[in-house]
Write a structure and sequence with these properties.
The protein has a domain of 192 residues. Helices cover 77% and strands 0% of the residues. It has 15 helices and no strands. Helix 3 packs parallel to helix 7, helix 5 runs antiparallel to helix 6 and helix 6 packs across helix 8. It is globular.
Length: 369
């Protein structure tokens, strides 16, 4: 913006020296003001994003209230949130040929959550398996895959929901509701083995569907996307690149995905016994995952989102000067300054943070009373 001000000052001096006619000046200034009005009118967020942002904040505060004050109703709250989010995700993913992502492990866990809630609510063996898979590989995926807490993006909020809410559900069921005899029955090595079996069962179904039953579809349609295809071609993960080097490029994307995920799942399951036995450790683990998600979201807002908007703004300004290079040989200083996107965004965050802190404070007072 400083370079732009220098240009304006230089052009203003040239006007005085050349003594151009007032009509020309007014025409140029009019064009500049129209551009400023356009730039001011460009929304930082789409209406859908704004609605998603508001819903994300409401979801955050309501979730805190339910977990703290109404843990016995967490299952109902989870189901009420799950259904519309999954319907929306399927529709949006199907439009972009990405619906095979909904065969991934995180969605498999949503199915098991519904089974635990409605079919076997008091089966301690099944609950322990559910608990371990939720708080092991599913919760750790928030950190590994960098699930971002970005309130204006419904897609990111949905991804965060399916990774964090099953652990929160298991937290309320373990410590506050009536899953029979959970206190007296610790997680054993046999339970951990069952967790791995449940994971292997999902992996078998996944490979069966994507590599055999629908292999012809994937061969014909290169735009059809799955985790294996995304991992290998669209956005190769560093782990994938490393494994390709170790196997001298002989392993397929599916083989690498299966092997790495199995190893990751076994490692992630190891600490779940501590979470099951110690309330503080379980709560801390969930808070750490949410903390990482908040950090990733903050990085997105301050590094990616703001930079991209500022870049788009500068491109429009440069395009205007390029298109009017010959006529803008002289102009007086515009009456209105161009908007500073970074300053506006920081100001927005400041007032939003104050409002959020106030709302959370009022919510806590309500809970305590």
């Amino acid at each position: 913006m400083s370079n732009l001000n220098k240009k304006r000052k230089k052009l203003s001096e040239e006007i005085k020296e050349k003594g151009l006619r007032t009509t020309v000046e007014e025409k140029i200034v009019s064009s500049q003001e129209k551009l400023n009005a356009k730039l001011m009118a460009v929304p930082i967020l789409r209406t859908k994003d704004k609605v998603s942002f508001v819903l994300g904040i409401i979801l955050l505060m309501l979730s805190e209230f339910v977990v703290i004050s109404l843990p016995q109703w967490m299952w109902l709250y989870y189901v009420m949130m799950l259904i519309p989010l999954m319907v929306n995700r399927f529709v949006s993913y199907h439009r972009s040929n990405a619906h095979y992502f909904m065969l991934d492990f995180c969605y498999y866990m949503q199915v098991w959550a519904l089974i635990v809630i409605f079919v076997y609510p008091n089966d301690i063996s099944l609950f322990k398996v559910f608990f371990g898979l939720c708080n092991g590989p599913l919760l750790m995926a928030v950190i590994i895959w960098e699930n971002k807490m970005v309130f204006h993006d419904l897609d990111k909020i949905t991804s965060l929901f399916i990774h964090v809410f099953p652990p929160l559900l298991s937290y309320t069921m373990r410590w506050y509701t009536n899953v029979e005899n959970t206190t007296d029955v610790p997680i054993t090595f046999y339970d951990m083995f069952c967790m791995v079996l449940f994971y292997v069962f999902w992996q078998f179904l996944y490979v069966l569907k994507t590599e055999w039953l629908d292999a012809e579809k994937f061969a014909k349609d290169t735009s059809l996307m799955s985790s294996a295809r995304w991992l290998s071609s669209v956005q190769p993960h560093p782990i994938y690149k490393k494994m390709m080097k170790l196997t001298s490029n002989k392993a397929t994307a599916t083989q690498i995905l299966v092997g790495v995920q199995l190893f990751y799942t076994i490692i992630a399951i190891l600490p779940v016994n501590l979470m099951f036995n110690y309330h503080s450790f379980h709560l801390l683990s969930i808070l750490v995952a949410i903390g990482f998600s908040s950090w990733y979201g903050a990085s997105f807002y301050f590094e990616s989102f703001t930079m991209n908007y500022t870049k788009r703004l500068e491109q429009k300004i440069n395009k205007f000067y390029k298109n009017n290079k010959e006529s803008i040989e002289g102009t007086r200083k515009p009456k209105k300054a161009l908007p500073s996107s970074l300053q506006s965004f920081i100001s927005f965050l400041k007032y939003f943070s104050l409002s959020l802190i106030t709302l959370i404070g009022l919510m806590n007072l309500l809970i305590l009373s």
